[in-house]
Design goal:
Blueprint (H helix, E strand, L loop, with lengths): L2 H19 L7 H13 L2 E3 L2 E4 L2 E6 L4 H4 L2 H17 L3 E2 L4 E6 L9 E5 L2 H7 L17 E5 L3 E4 L4 E5 L6 E4 L8 E6 L2 E6 L6 E3 L2 E2 L2 E3 L5 E4 L2 E7 L24 E4 L3
Parallel strand pairs: 2-4, 3-5, 9-10, 10-18
Antiparallel strand pairs: 1-2, 3-6, 7-8, 7-17, 9-11, 11-12, 12-15, 13-14, 13-16, 16-17
Helix pairs in contact: 1-2, 1-4
Length: 262
């Protein structure tokens, strides 16, 4: 199915569903286009079978975010994604999810959609040389970061340092990022993001933070470099204590390096 046909099929299925549960409501036209584009671009092949992305994040401007929090609207899009995939003979690596997040950089009427695969399936389909290690019980399951909308990094360690220096766990080769910019620390099944006195600051959903609990779909900005935090199966909410960062203790590991295109 070409992109236009995929977009029209999504629109038909969503509007049919909404005509029953939300009569008279019509989503933005670009929502169908953006989701169709993200879905088509994210298709991968594993053992000869096409695999559709199963993790979808909708980035919206702050003023439009409340309207999209309607569960019936999200259910309509999610069911349409499942139906279209089935009609096209596409499989999912895990049940698809649809998450919303505010993106302060977007203006009114704008929208971005990021589609990715579950970490386990990504490792298989993209031929990663090193499999993610089995996460400790304290580490959120299937957590990952999407960098600049394209690079996806699985998070499988209890402490993850991010910055420009090569001895960080995730190295971002961008002059805006400090040498030691931020740290992720797993605490009771959650990742906590800490700013390490960076020059350009660390932001979560547009708010500058020194430390912040991360939830699936959160938009992180490291001095303007954008990351999305994702997690296939978020744990139930828990009270958090002892969230101050400990001294970094970098074990031997492979370093993930991302270089900004010139």
């Amino acid at each position: 199915m070409n992109l236009n046909a995929l977009e029209q099929r999504l629109k038909t299925l969503v509007e049919l569903h909404l005509s029953i549960v939300m009569p008279g409501y019509h989503p933005q036209e670009q929502a169908f286009q953006k989701i169709a584009e993200a879905m088509q671009k994210g298709i991968q092949t594993y053992e000869g079978k096409p695999i559709a992305p199963n993790v979808y994040t909708l980035l919206l401007p702050r003023e439009e975010f409340p309207a999209w929090k309607e569960k019936r609207l999200l259910d309509a899009f999610l069911e349409a994604i499942k139906r279209v995939a089935e009609e096209q003979g596409l499989a999912f690596s895990a049940p698809p999810t649809l998450t919303l997040s505010e993106d302060p950089s977007l203006g009114y009427g704008e929208m971005r959609v990021i589609a990715s695969h579950s970490i386990e399936k990504m490792g298989e389909t993209q031929g990663m040389e090193e499999k993610a290690t089995e996460p400790e019980p304290n580490i959120p399951p299937n957590a990952f970061l999407i960098l600049e909308g394209s690079k996806v990094f699985p998070l499988t360690q209890s402490v993850i340092n991010i910055g420009r220096r090569l001895d960080n766990h995730i190295v971002i080769d961008d002059p805006r990022v400090s040498r030691r910019h931020a740290q992720l620390r797993a605490v009771k099944g959650w990742y906590i993001l800490f700013d390490l006195n960076s020059t350009g600051g660390t932001f979560v959903n547009g708010q500058r933070v020194t430390q912040s609990i991360l939830y699936p779909g959160d938009v992180i900005s490291l001095a303007g470099v954008s990351l999305i935090y994702g997690q296939d199966n978020p744990p139930p909410r828990q009270d958090l204590i002892d969230t101050k960062p400990l001294s970094p203790n970098i074990a031997e590991r492979e370093t993930i390096v991302w270089k900004k295109s010139p």
